[in-house]
């Protein structure tokens, strides 16, 4: 389930946000990726500041609609495979879009990505959390463990 919004002119013409208040319905990165593909889409690749802003606006509208959205991050389609840890390339350069996009756009939170065992990326959505060094935990990106439920 989720809210689907379509636009006529954009490269990604339709977006679907899936948010589960019920923690038991939240899923890991791979489950989220498969759910998108079964739905004929892909986990989102955000390719510009304009697209990032569009998604932020969609989340704000969803929140305003009274659907009870509280803290809960959203998977996006950025990840790195663990077998690339041994390369000489700096860790942030190892992240790639699951749908094959080559967009260099990134919106990391301060001090992210932390790398290590965290290889899959979420868009922060924690309106009730106290702000950190990079400000509120809203809409910036964070690498997380791929088996976390979002």
From TrEMBL:
PROSITE patterns per UniProt: C_TYPE_LECTIN_2
Domain of life of the native organism: Eukaryota
GO molecular-function term, one example from the UniProt record: carbohydrate binding
Location relative to the cell: Membrane
Domain C-type lectin: residue ranges: 10-150
Membrane topology term: Single-pass type I membrane protein
Major localization listed first in the record, in broad terms: membrane
Keywords: Lectin, Membrane, Signal, Transmembrane, Transmembrane helix
InterPro entries xref list: C-type_lectin-like, C-type_lectin-like/link_sf, C-type_lectin_domain, CTDL_fold
Pfam families assigned to the protein according to its UniProt record, in alphabetical order: Lectin_C (PF00059)
GO cellular component: cytoplasm; membrane
GO terms, biological process: positive regulation of axonogenesis
Alphabetized PANTHER family for the sequence: CHONDROLECTIN, CHONDROLECTIN VARIANT CHODLFDELTAE
Protein name, as recorded: CHODL protein
Recorded name of the encoding gene: Chodl
